[in-house]
Amino acid sequence: MVSFTALTLGLSAISAALAVPAEAPVQKRGDMNFVLGPDHPLALAKRNYTLARRSNTNYVQNYKTGGTVNFSSGTNSFTINWSNPQDFVCGVGWNPGSNLPITHSGSFSVSSGVASLGVYGWTTNPLIEYYVMDWNVGISPGTLKGSFTSDGATYNIYTNTRTNEPSILGTSTFQQYISVRTSGTASGTVTVQNHFSKWASMGLNLGTMNFQVISVESWQGSGSASQSVSNTGGGNTNPPTTTKAGTTPTTTPSNGGGTTGCSAMWGQCGGIGWTGPKCCSAGTCKSSNAYYSQCL
Ligand SMILES: *[C@@H]1O[C@H](CO)[C@@H](O)[C@H](O)[C@H]1NC(C)=O
Ligand SMILES: *[C@@H]1O[C@H](CO)[C@@H](O)[C@H](O)[C@H]1NC(C)=O
Ligand SMILES: *[C@@H]1O[C@H](CO)[C@@H](O)[C@H](O)[C@H]1NC(C)=O
């Protein structure tokens, strides 16, 4: 399922040199993870890991509930057409998602009814369904919370509460965070971090990254789309989230017998998706970015 690119092999080489399994998330490196200074090679390698994660899509979202939906996915691309469908969300992307910029390009044509095209993903703890709709035709997204500029366009931000609706954890009640580009485009780069940061500034916090795709959603009418998808483009990057969906975060070892439950010096103490300690038993918790705060 996962395509191992030359970049990934490059990471393997780095990881092997550091005696770390190539695909192991950083938090599984054990105690070493919590005694890293900012200049420690492993901390630097973690930043390189972010860059190396720019790779082919490794996840296909193929959610259909009825009607005619012809969806065909490839690596980094998909085509779809629909006619009188029930709700569907189909596309390609990554699992787990990240804050890397995502570029998509191609066509999006809605002949009738409603449909959206854009970034779509989920987090857990809290359970959030999020969208950055680059093109919204006729969908009422919820309650308008504000707007901002990103990637040369204005996005309106909405929230919506879904009560007893389908989710990645089964039928649940959860929030949706939805950015909608006011001038629709079928091709563009979404600087995902801009949306995550803006949402966070409004108190709309995400949790642990689950899948993240460029997708098309609709539940009525007809239309078609063909999209190429990548996160190998330009844009600023940040360290990846330090927890992955379905894994239990490593807890911070106590420092010298302390049982405060706080992170030791150099340990992580906060950031979107972080479910570990949010205090420091040594040093002060300082934010590096929305995803990573460290005891320094
Ligand atoms: C990170 O990548 C840079 C640029 O490729 C390289 O010079 C450096 O040695 C790498 N550091 C680690 C710790 O892998
Ligand atoms: C709809 O998709 C199917 C399957 O991908 C394809 O064979 C068909 O030509 C498409 N129809 C239109 C009108 O694009
Ligand atoms: C979807 O595929 C079916 C079977 O190939 C075809 O009959 C139908 O016309 C396609 N739908 C659209 C909207 O092109």
From TrEMBL:
Biased composition (Low complexity): 237-254
InterPro entries found in the cross-reference section: CBD, CBD_sf, ConA-like_dom_sf, GH11/12, GH11_AS_1, GH11_dom, Glyco_hydro_11
GO cellular component: extracellular region
Residue numbers spanned by region Disordered: 224-257
Reactions mediated catalytically: Endohydrolysis of (1->4)-beta-D-xylosidic linkages in xylans
UniProt main location, coarse: secreted
GO molecular function, one term: cellulose binding
Coiled coil: none
One GO process term, biological-process aspect: xylan catabolic process
Record's subcellular location: Secreted
Annotated signal peptide: 1-19
Active site: 129, 217
This enzyme's EC code(s): 3.2.1.8
Cited Gene3D superfamilies: 2.60.120.180
Residues in CBM1 domain copies: 261-296
Pathway: Glycan degradation; xylan degradation
Major enzyme class: hydrolase
Keywords: Carbohydrate metabolism, Glycosidase, Hydrolase, Polysaccharide degradation, Secreted, Signal, Xylan degradation
Ranges of residues in domain GH11: 45-230
Family (UniProt): Belongs to the glycosyl hydrolase 11 (cellulase G) family.
Name assigned to this protein: Endo-1,4-beta-xylanase
The organism of origin for this protein: Orbilia ellipsospora
